[in-house]
């Protein structure tokens, strides 16, 4: 292909990650990161220079490349369980919450505070509850009106600050039904970093399209993740380009004629 003399390019593309199975270099399939507003590459080199200093001002007469370090950064605003798991160095899973009836739990409560149900089932608690009821330590039913409120979707309840029936440090027993639910869950796993292969498929509207493939990279979280704010949420990552083996180069750039 004969490239134009002025191949001005507006960079756009899609980023894919083929995460290796834990503890191996075995590919598991390329997953699309979702929208990536930024993807940048940086090359840094270190040389050993030699200078001729026999006479007058020293002049450089040789230079040897000692080290070449390729890194990158990218941002995605596709907030998925898989991307969150990468950012928090954890694992994403889909879990099924089974239904159950007449579950009973006991709490020592204070006015104005919230309490999560089902923490013995999962540390973060259960969701999707119904038929919530409360009794005091004498097994007398406590009416909801004026005494407590329930967040059924998230499996939580609160003693109202102005309750005339429930006092601070009272012991209450609650019963409820738990509905069936499918839960997308991310749990931090203490992974130091994540390895895999990275592929960039160019979709730029201006300029020739060059695709980039990195057979072996380490991906690490980078920067803040704003859980609350006035901007779209974004996840930032650092990329370190590594060499897979002696027969594989660190990076391949291709353009189809």
Describe the structure.
Helix content is 3%, strand content 49%. It has one helix at residues 81-87, and strands at residues 13-19, 30-32, 38-52, 59-76, 90-97, 100-109, 114-116, 129-135, 148-151, 156-159, 170-178, 181-188, 194-202, 211-221, 235-241, 252-254. Strand 9 and strand 10 (156-159) form a beta hairpin. The radius of gyration is 29 Å and the shape is elongated. The protein folds into two domains: 13-88 and 188-254, Pnp Oxidase, Chain A (Roll), CATH 2.30.110; 99-179, no CATH class. It is mainly beta and 257 residues long. 16% of the residues are buried. The strands form four sheets. Strands 1, 2, 3, 4, 13, 14, 15 and 16 form an eight-stranded antiparallel β-sheet that branches. It has a three-stranded antiparallel β-sheet with strand order 6-11-8, with no helix packed on it. A three-stranded antiparallel β-sheet has the order 7-10-9, with no helix packed on it. It has one helix and 16 strands.
Poorly predicted tracts of residues: none
Level of helix content? under 10%
* SSE order, one letter for each helix or strand: EEEEHEEEEEEEEEEEE
Rg, Cα atoms, Å: 29 Å
Structural class: mainly beta
Total helix count?
Answer: 1
End-to-end separation in angstroms reads: 6 Å
Tertiary shape? elongated
- Give the beta-strand count: 16
CATH topology of the largest domain: Pnp Oxidase, Chain A
Query: In this structure, how is the largest beta sheet organized?
Result: 8 strands, antiparallel
The CATH top-level class label of the largest domain: Mainly Beta
Q: Give the quaternary arrangement of the chains.
A: single chain
Number of domains: 2
Overall pLDDT score = 94
What fraction of residues sit in β-strands? over 45%
User: What is the CATH architecture assignment of the largest domain?
Assistant: Roll
């Amino acid at each position: 292909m004969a490239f134009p003399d002025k191949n001005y390019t507006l960079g756009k593309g899609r980023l894919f990650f083929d995460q290796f199975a834990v503890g191996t270099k075995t590919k598991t399939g390329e997953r699309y990161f979702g929208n990536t507003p930024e993807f940048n590459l940086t090359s840094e080199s270190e040389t050993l220079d030699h200078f001729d200093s026999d006479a007058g001002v020293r002049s450089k007469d040789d230079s040897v490349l000692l080290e070449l370090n390729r890194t990158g950064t990218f941002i995605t605003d596709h907030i998925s369980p898989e991307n969150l798991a990468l950012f928090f160095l954890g694992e994403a899973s889909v879990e099924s919450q089974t239904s159950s009836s007449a579950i009973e739990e006991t709490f020592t409560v204070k006015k104005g505070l919230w309490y999560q149900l089902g923490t013995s089932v999962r540390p973060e608690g259960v969701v999707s509850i119904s038929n919530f009821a409360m009794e005091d330590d004498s097994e007398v039913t406590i009416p909801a009106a004026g005494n407590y409120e329930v967040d059924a979707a998230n499996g939580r309840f609160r003693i109202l600050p102005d309750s005339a029936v429930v006092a601070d440090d009272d012991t209450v027993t609650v019963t409820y039904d738990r509905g069936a639910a499918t839960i997308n869950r991310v749990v931090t796993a203490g992974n130091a970093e994540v390895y895999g292969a990275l592929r960039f498929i160019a979709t730029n509207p201006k300029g020739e399209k060059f695709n980039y493939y990195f057979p072996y990279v380490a991906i690490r979280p980078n920067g803040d993740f704003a859980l609350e704010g006035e901007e779209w949420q974004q996840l930032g990552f650092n990329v370190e380009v590594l060499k897979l083996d002696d027969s594989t180069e660190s990076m391949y750039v291709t353009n189809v004629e």
